[in-house]
Amino acid sequence: MNRNVRLSLQITCIILFFVETGLYAETIKSLRLSNSEIELEIVPRLSGRVVALRRPGGDNLLYVNPTDLQGIDESAIPRLQPDKSSFRKFYGHIIWLSPQTDWWRQQSIDPKAKRKGEMWPPDPWMEFDHFSIVRQSTNELVLKGTHSPISGVTLTKTFKLEPNASVILTVKVRNTGKKSVSWGIWSNTRVPASARVYVPVNPARQMRYELNSWNPLHERLIEYDFNAGFFYFVKPERFPAKVNVFKGKVGLTPSVPLIAAFIGSDVLLKTCHMAPKSLIAPGHFPIEIYSEINRNPTESVTELEFHGEYSTIAPGEEITFGERWQLLSARQLPDTPSAHTNFLQDQ
Fold it and tell me: How far apart are CA 91 and CA 301, in angstroms?
């Protein structure tokens, strides 16, 4: 056999080996917005998910799993179909729709889920859709998804850097189906469970606190308290014997539409124009915080959630929700509720 032919066959076999074993598989990529004060990373392939928020050269303030989502390949992403068994949690910041009780009730491709009113998992188009780039510049990114046959809508997300270590996040939800649907926009930002989170509450302290447990013998409710008008979780000092998880979810009517998360030497402030409780989707509050502290660190997370106004959306119409993130420095600040709430009151 000609030497050149043998060499060509060997190269072909090597390429086939890489493809067959996945070593040549396509990996997902992120897009970055950055300036001298703040950096944001977004993955279009995961429904325009924000996977990193940091100061330039600093640590990521968001919780994602795995920590480097660019290291996973396409085969690890669940397909866009109503297959609940393949759902995977990547965390980061994502947009859902509320109420959760209707996630599978406004569709017709999975009659069983519709009949049962399934509440998990979320619409896969909210989690695993391949968003396309509409517009991109040094300080702004606009991404658009595809039509979800589960929710009957298409999402467009805009991320724009602002002065003072801030970013504006806006989402538009357009009814691209043939019938009216009713939704509110649900913003869900995941941070490490070690974050100290505070929400200013109204004097009446209108709230709901709950524990949904699949294993009550090994799960406990996280305690909470108030300091200077701010709600916060009281982190457990240790795990008692046979207890593997502390968790809980609180729904709050805030005095100011603000969530503050102290993470290391930084503070993440999330603010928005908030609708009153009466206009939020049934079963939800304007602000909701979920926290889980697990013996398995990869399962420990805190979710910072905003809920927008609940509306009936006719075909061709859309609803919009916007929020502002800002990073503040809390370097050398004592790690106590009093120090944290005094800091917030001074802002």
Answer: 9
Q: Is 220 helix (H, G, I), strand (E, B) or coil?
A: strand
Across the beta sheet with 132-136, the strand order is 132-136, 140-144, 153-162, 166-175, 318-329, 266-272, 258-263, 196-200, 230-234, 223-227
Return the CATH number at 139: 2.70.98.10
Counted domains in the chain: 1
Residue-wise burial string across 30-54, b where 16 or more C-beta atoms lie within 10 A, e elsewhere: beebeeebbbbbbbbbbbbbbbbbb
Indicate the Cα dihedral angle 89, 94, 98, 104, nearest 10°: -40
332 assigned to some structural domain? yes
> With contact defined as beta carbons under 8 Å apart, do 56 and 346 qualify?
no
Q: Which two tokens stand for residue 134?
A: 């509409």
158, part of any domain: yes
202/178 Cα distance (integer angstroms): 41
Domain that holds residue 311: 28-345
- Domain for residue 119, yes or no? yes
For CA atoms 34, 40, 46, 47, the dihedral sign is negative
pLDDT in tens, the chain (347 residues): 554 444 444 433 333 333 333 333 467 899 999 999 999 999 999 999 999 999 999 999 999 987 777 667 888 899 898 877 889 999 999 999 999 999 999 998 888 888 888 889 999 999 999 999 999 999 999 999 999 999 999 999 999 999 999 999 999 999 999 999 999 999 999 999 999 999 999 877 789 998 876 777 899 999 999 999 999 999 999 999 999 999 999 999 999 999 999 999 999 999 999 999 999 999 999 999 999 999 998 899 999 999 999 999 999 999 999 999 999 999 999 999 999 999 999 99
Reduce the DSSP state of residue 133 to 3 states and report it: strand
Residues facing residue 322 across a β-bridge? 170
- Pairing mode of beta strands 196-200, 93-98: unpaired
Amino acid at 23: L
Does the residue 270 lie in any domain? yes
